[in-house]
Fold these 3 entries.
Entry 1:
Amino acid sequence: MKILILAIGKPKLSYAAEGVQEYCKRLRHYSPVSLEYLKGGGDFSSLLARSEGSYRIALDERGCQLDTISFSKRITQLENRPQLKKVAFLIGGADGHPPELRERCDEIWSLSRLTMQHELALVVLLEQLYRVFTIKRGEPYHRE
């Protein structure tokens, strides 16, 4: 299963850009993960168009909250669906996702009940995906 991460706008904050770079580099060893930055401007159609044919998961504060082990189990469940070739994680811009986009997604996940700056959300998602793959391989990154 391929993982596609679609984010509105490139990180402008240096710490976020560095975090994205670091976790993308780490993830290469585990799974085909691709990250694409799309132009913002309040139009969510680019997220939908680019994720067409993918299993869509919108990241939104109103979504389902998963702990890390549940996140790992959910990724494994998706991987075990043979017809599922690609999962797309959608990260909105500063204004988040409108209801129309959320309605067209297969799932909505929340990384936190707190409102999170979208660049930080991208770093958190990448770190959690890295954590998931180390859990699946039994590597000592995650601690309970």
Entry 2:
Amino acid sequence: MPVVGGTPEQIPEAYSAATIVNKTLPANTWLLQGNRDAIVPALHTRLDGAGTVIMAGAGHFDWAHPGTAAFRELLALLDKQL
């Protein structure tokens, strides 16, 4: 069962609400993507007004796992922004 409680056909409004391409992004937004992410399409990292970081070798969840290169990149980005 998908995390949002159904398939896109069953609950299209939930999928639309969770899709960043349907949002107006606040200033100073960064979109982080691993080039091995099989969950979120790379298209979602190409949005006007947002910075983009594509991490070679990173998957979808690497940004949240301490010890990965993607996690270190996230911390460095936060350090620069704060």
Entry 3:
Amino acid sequence: MSFQAYLDAVEDKTGLTPRQLVEIARGRGFDEPTVKAGAILDWLKADYGLGRGHGMALVHVIKKGTTIDSKHVGSSGSHRDESDTLWLDGKATKPV
């Protein structure tokens, strides 16, 4: 599953866009450098029922932003993505 597909699935599971979840996380201070991934994963599981894979996709965006490693862009592996920049504003508004 691509990184973007994980984020799209998060939207399906929660009803919130990844950007909305990132904003909620920031409001709770989860973007602070001292916050560990485990704390974010615990919150996402408790409040939204997200598992580790979907949660870690959001952890990346919360802690590191929308850019991902370009080694998967255009590759043929299962984690390939179309772009090194993730779309956070929802599947319905994603450019083609």
